[in-house]
Amino acid sequence: MNDDKGHNRKLMETCRTLEDYAEYTFRVREYAAEMPLDEAVERASTECISEGILADFLRKNRAEAKKVSIYEYDEERHMRQTREEGMEEGYANGLSQGIIQTAVNMLKLKEFTDTQIREVTGLAQEQLDELKKNINKNQIG
């Protein structure tokens, strides 16, 4: 379930606490974009208490709520960074495989010099020599 503000509107309307929590987390995220996370959590907590959003809970459990909010936000940011790094790594691996396949195709055509292949692919001569060995052993193709 997506408990972000604006999502699952029907459920939010029937559950005030969930709606308030979505508002609180929305504010934390919004403020964290422009200030340190602990300050963002503090500001969101203060505003929500003054506006009656999770007010009783935040008054009684402010320190714990702050710890949990910081942990959740850090975990969310970590997961997002991990996904982005994985995508970048996948892109780099795909690009590398494409370069190698291009070099293999050029070698098989036997119409290009090593210099031309290196210029097109950016591979070093040692890498090209290794590809040639593997092609000759039928390990690539």
Topology of this structure?
Blueprint: H1 9-14, H2 16-32, H3 37-50, H4 55-109, H5 114-121, H6 125-136
Helix pairs in contact: 2-3, 3-4, 4-5, 4-6
Task: Briefly summarize what is shown.
The protein is an all-alpha fold and 141 residues long.
The rounded Rg comes to 27 Å
State the end-to-end distance.
47 Å
Low-confidence stretches: none
Tally of distinct domains: 1
- The proportion of strand residues reads under 5%
> What is the helix tally?
6
What does this structure look like?
The chain has 141 residues and is an all-alpha fold. It has one domain. It has helices at 9-14, 16-32, 37-50, 55-109, 114-121, 125-136. Helix 3 (37-50) runs antiparallel to helix 4.
Structural descriptors:
rod-shaped, 141 residues, mainly alpha
